[in-house]
Design brief:
binds iron/sulfur cluster, two-stranded antiparallel ribbon, about 40% helix, 9 strands, alpha/beta, about 300 residues, Rossmann fold, globular
Amino acid sequence: MDNHVDLNERLALKGVSRRDFMKFCGLMATVLGLPMSFAPRIAEAMEKKRPTVVWMHFAECTGCTESFIRTTYPWAADIIFDVIDLAYHETIMAAAGDQAEEILEKTVKDNKGKYICIAEGAIPTKDNGVYGKVHGKTFLEIANHVCKNAAATICVGACACDGGVQAAKPNPTEAKSVSAVTGLKTVNIAGCPPNANNMVATIVHYLLLGKLPALDDKGRPLFAYGYLIHDNCPRRGHFENQEFVKQFGDEGAAKGWCLYQVGCAGPETYNNCPIIQWNQGTNWPIRAGHPCIGCSEPKFWDDMSPFYVQK
Ligand code: SF4
Ligand code: SF4
């Protein structure tokens, strides 16, 4: 079937009109730092290609999946799940048990070197990885099999990117990142959780240009993690004027002053939260009066805590 017709029909069944789809493509152009004139090209790329994707869950809380699938506007998850061929995702697939495992094995075998692996969660390595298993296999074995046979592995969330809370001190299971365990160079969509628009834009970039985006030295896409929170923060003027919130609920908090003295890690954290915001662009932590806790920086649970004191 013509995927152009196919995609539009499938989206229409979900209540996503062509106009909504084009708005989504415009948003993706914005997130990727491209001119709005790229929106039709993004639409064209998404209509034509259907890469096979497997989404693996390792040691995690499923918050990254939740961040992704709970987007309601502009229906990022609905759109992207119709654009890709999602062969395996434990949270949302209908199959279970042996049947699910057969699907995974067949996908890896039939698409060796061609599919994209999205990895969520850290890999426990202590005692040969016995602290994380699915279907009798350790996450260690699964990651080395599924990620190493993929064309590329995209890590979503702090746990897959650098071990996350699983690897925080004292790290009882000796949890590690997917990259540390497999030796692969992964694309790291950092954050706890990451913003769904950054996850989707990475896939859209692949569909549009046939390659993964340029990365920083921590494997994070530069389009999203190329600037400090501090540099785009609307409270920055108050930082320069030395106007600080001293404690939550004080006069400075009421006036929207800088949160640096109550622990804001914005000066050390790379992410695009001030630009694309959260909850469909409704708001983001600092605008809501909460300091950035540095969730897109490696080892932030150890290195940025305690969270509510000046760094
Ligand atoms: S609130 Fe945080 S990110 Fe914003 S100006 Fe102050 S220190 Fe920088
Ligand atoms: S503001 Fe900071 S802690 Fe909050 S989501 Fe963005 S990077 Fe993470």
